[in-house]
Design a protein that fits this description.
alpha/beta; globular; 5-stranded mixed beta sheet; 39% helix
Length: 142
């Protein structure tokens, strides 16, 4: 039987937060059994706003619904949470050089919306770590 999961494209010099990056991340997430398992119990819509980067300001979203997680461009429809951060902060999180919790506590990441719903989805973010690690190896952060 043929898998219904999308094929993963391998790109070289994929720029962080580019359309290629968002699409590649989405493909990896769609192929992750641990992410699908974690998503089965949750629903959440996050809008991410990254300001001041080389591509200008970037808005993308992450949605957990119906047992799946997806990334896309623009704000999340019916967003539960909005996170805003500078380019430097976003790169520090994406490359693992800074701890997200420390950045939240220090005010480097602004979070508004339903924080309880965000906290309840911790298992989803733990499952996403492996996906981000894979994509990180294909990404250029400049």
């Amino acid at each position: 039987a043929q898998s219904k999961r999308p094929k993963i494209r391998h790109t070289t010099d994929m720029r962080y937060l580019s359309l290629d990056w968002i699409q590649t991340l989405s493909q990896h997430v769609a192929n992750s059994v641990p992410v699908a398992d974690a998503c089965a119990q949750h629903s959440l819509a996050i809008t991410q706003v990254v300001t001041g980067g080389p591509p200008g300001d970037v808005v993308y979203h992450f949605i957990v619904a119906d047992g799946a997680a997806t990334f896309g461009t623009g704000a999340a429809p019916d967003e539960d949470v909005r996170m805003e951060q500078s380019w430097d902060t976003a790169v520090a999180v994406a490359t693992g050089t800074m701890n997200t919790q420390e950045l939240l506590i220090g005010g480097k990441i602004s979070v508004t919306g339903d924080l309880q719903k965000l906290i309840a989805c911790q298992a989803v973010f733990i499952a996403l770590d492996a996906v981000f690690e894979t994509v990180r190896q294909e990404t250029v952060y400049e």
